[in-house]
Amino acid sequence: MFEDVLAHYASVFDADSLYGYRQIISIFSGIILIWMLGISYLVVKANPNELENRFMAVLLICEGIKASWLLWDFFPNGPKFEWLWDYVWFFKIELYMFAIITSVILYLCFPIYYKVNKLKMLYNKKLQRKVWYMAPIIGLVIWTILRSQEGIRIENSAWIICESTGKAPVLQSWFGEITEAMIKTKSDIGVCPSNFEVLITDEPIALTIIGFTQIPATILALILFRSAMKENRNLNNNSSLTNRSLYIGLLGKFLIAMTYVLLLVIIFPLLNGGEMLTYADNISFQFGADRSNLQKVIFFLWTSSLAIIPISIGFEALMFVHASLNDSVFGIDKNLRETFRTAIFTGFGVVSFIVGCEVMEALIGFGIAGGVIVGLGVVVLRKPAYSLIDTFSKQIIPSEFSDTENKYLDAYKLAMADGLITNDERSLLILLAESYDLNQKRVDYIESFCDARMIEEE
Fold first, then answer.
1. Most CB contacts within 10 A, which of 154, 174, 190, 229?
2. Considering the domain 2-6+12-329, what is its CATH architecture?
3. What pLDDT, on a 0 to 100 scale, did the predictor assign at position 103?
4. Domain boundaries, the chain
C-alpha cells in the first residue's frame, strides 16, 4: 500500500501534471478550509450568545466547505484506492453541494440579521434565534431531495489507467457504466505519455446550475448590505464599519469569483473552438497525443483557475473576521494586511516558479533553471512588491477605527510629535474625546496603538 501511495505522488509531480501544481492548489484549498473553521470558532467564542455571531459562524463553515472542494483531489486515486474514495466522494460532492445550497439560503437571510428598512419586518429576534441552525437543516433536506433526481446525480464513473509509458490506456469502471464520452477521452490520449490513474465521471449540467445560483444570491446580498450600510451610517459608527467590512468582503469575493465565471463561460469557450470546457477535455489536454501549444496553455490556465474560488473565499474571510471581531480583537486590520500581503506574494511566487519551469523545459529541456531564475527575481523584487501590495490592501481593507476615532488619533499624533504631552494638550484631548463620545477604555487603546506604531516606525 505504501509503495502504491509513493507511485501515485511520483506520477503527479511530473511535467504532464505541471510538477504537482494541482496538488499545491489542493493543499491551498485545505488551508482555506482550516482557516475558515478557525475563524468560525473565534467568531462564536468572541460572543457565544450573540445571534449574529452564530449566523456568521455557520456561513463561514459553509464557505470553507466550498473552498475545500479541491482538497480531496490531493488524496491518492485509482482502483487501488477505491475504498478511500468511497468516503472522499461524500466530502467532494455531497458535502460540497449541501454547502452551496445552505450558503445561498443564508445569503437570502441577511435582512434577518442586518436591518434594512424596506424589509424591517424580517429583522426580529424570533427569526434570528432560529435561522442560524434552521438554514443548514433546510439545505440538507433540499439536497437530499435533489441528489437522487435524474439529471443531477452522477451515475457513471471510471478510472483511466496508464500503467507504463507507450502502452494503451485502460478504462476501468468504478460505478455505473462506461459511457461514450469516457471512451472518446481514452481515444484522445492514444498512447500513455506516462504512468497515471485519473478519475472521469458524468458532468451533469444541473450541478453547474446549482453552483451558479450563488451569483444572484450574492448580488441580492450585496444590495441588501449596501442598503443597511447607508441606513446605519449616521446611527452607529461601529455598526457602519461592520457593515462596510462585510460589504467589502462580499463584493471582493463576488468580483474575484466572477473572474472564474468569465473564464468558464467566455474565455475557455473562445479558446476551445466555441465549446464549453469540460473536465474530460482537460484530461485530453493534459495527457492527449499530439497536444498543441494552445491546448497546453488552456490546461495550465484551467488548472490555475481552480485556485480562484478558494482565493475569493479567503478574501471574504479576511473581511468577515474584521467585521465580526472588530470590537473584540484590536489591531486586526494590521494583521489582515500582513496576511493579505503574504498570501498574494506567495501565490504570485508559486505561479511564477511553475511558469518559469514550463518555459525553460520547453526551450532547453531543463525546467528547474527557469524556477531558479524566477526565484532569484522574486527575492530581488520582494520589497517593492510588498510596498505595492500594501498600497493596494490599504484601499480594500478598512481601518478598525471609525472616522471620529481616526480624528482623535491624528490629534494625539500631533500632541506626541515632541514625545511629551503637556497638561494643556491633555485637557484638549479630553475635551476632544468627550465631544466624539469616546469612553476612557477606547481612548487608552487608541493612544497605546499610536504609541506602538511610533515605536515600530523608529
1. 229
2. Up-down Bundle (1.20)
3. 92
4. 2-6+12-329, 330-400, 403-457
